[in-house]
Amino acid sequence: MIHTDILIIGAGPVGLFTVFEAGLLKLKCHLVDSLGQPGGQLSEIYPKKPIYDIPGYPTILASELVDNLMKQIEPFKPGFTLGERAEKLEKTENDNFKLTTSKGTTIYAPVVAIAGGLGCFEPRKPPIDNIDLFEDKGVDYIIKDPLKYKGKRVLVAGGGDSALDWSIILSDIADEVTLVHRRTSFRGALDSVDKVMDLARKGKINLITNAQAVGLRGNGVLKEIIIEEEGKEDYSHNADNFIPLFGLSPKLGPMSDWGLRIKDNAIVVDTFDYSTNIAGIYAIGDINTYPGKLKLILCGFHEATLMAQSAFRYIHPDQKLSFKYTTVSGVAGF
Predict the structure, then answer these.
(1) pLDDT single digits (tens) 117-166
(2) Which partner for 109 in 7, 46, 258, 264 could form a disulfide, CB atoms 3.0-4.6 Å apart?
(3) Is this structure's pTM higher than 0.85?
């Protein structure tokens, strides 16, 4: 049995930063995550991927950002329950919340902050009949270590940020990078689109648009990808690796049964403090939704900051909250 001030569901970057903001207000935190390590998607899906939109860091690897966040919150001594999924949430007689995990761990807190990222997620697979036969034998849905593709012929499929970013990164690692997209326009950041187009002009990326992968061939391991391109007969493309990056299919899992207001598989919040329709429960980061929502880490950091202030007032309604800038509050010494 664990007691804390704020129970944080999700130990990704936003959940970790919540510990810091809560710690400044002398609130203790305990984090629960179904993954076996802190960092969420940054640790599990793309630890070696550079991130470019963290203030003060022109570029930082996802794993490095997680390491820095862990160092930042170390003085506040948060608790962690990792490798256990948040299953059942209920209100107790003394107005606390009781969370029971998939392994029976119980955690009590007056405030719950849901920072579960995309919730439970799985990659969206292209409709290729035999794709399961080549998973981990040339087909990857997630890139954890780009050096795995050094000297390889790689075909990336997709038109979003992940497909664009990884094509750019792999162009300096793999022997050959081909990017296939069903349209001529892309959904990713304009800067990334410009970089891909420039690399294509320089011959560092083979760009094929109005096309899609429709078949895979190989004897135990992937050897060929069948491409269906508009205006042409289907043809074979030699490749060692096929990486379809069509995003993740999010699922809220047990959280969908907690009485929260849900829209488009995300938790609806009030942007005043990112509270949900249940008093004492907040949702921050990619798992929430509101008009104008942007699924960016830095936006999640902002949401965590306002949420922590509101959580303090919820827990201590009779205490005056005195906001201090960390530059003058002596935060470095804690």
Answers:
(1) 766 566 789 999 999 999 989 999 888 789 999 999 999 999 998 899 99
(2) 7
(3) no
Q: At a CB cut-off of 8 Å and minimum separation 6, what does 148 contact?
A: none
Token pair of 153, please? 């012929």
Q: Which fold has domain 125-244?
A: FAD/NAD(P)-binding domain (3.50.50)
CB burial of residue 1 (10 Å; 0-12, 13-18, 19+): exposed
Assess if CATH 3.40.190.80 describes domain 2-121+248-315.
Answer: no
Which residue has tokens 């906001």? 323
Question: What angle in degrees, to the nearest 10, is found between the helix axes of 13-24 and 62-73?
Answer: 20
How far is it, in rounded angstroms, from Cα 314 to Cα 223?
A: 59
3-state helix/strand/coil string of 10-63: CCCHHHHHHHHHHHHCCCCEEEEECCCCCCCHHHHCCCCCEECCECCECCEEHH
Q: What is the per-residue pLDDT for 49?
A: 84
d(CA 318, CA 110): 15
For 326, half-sphere exposure in the C-beta direction (CA atoms, 13 angstrom radius) is: 12
Weakest-pLDDT range from 68-77, 87-96, 206-215, 250-259: 250-259
Portion of the chain with pLDDT greater than 70, in percent? 93
| Distance between CA atoms of residues 111 and 27, nearest Å | 11
Listed in sequence order, the DSSP H helices in 25-170 are 41-44, 62-73, 161-170
Element (H, E) at 190: helix 190-201
Cα–Cα distance for residue pair 241/172, rounded to 1 Å: 16
Exposed/middle/buried for residue 189 (C-beta within 10 Å: 0-12, 13-18, 19+): middle
- What is the Rg, in whole angstroms, of the alpha carbon atoms belonging to the chain? 22
Tokens 């509050």 map to which residue?
329
Mean pLDDT of 262-267: 92
Listed residue (172, 146, 189, 131) closest to 45, CA to CA: 146
pLDDT at residue 329, as a whole number: 54
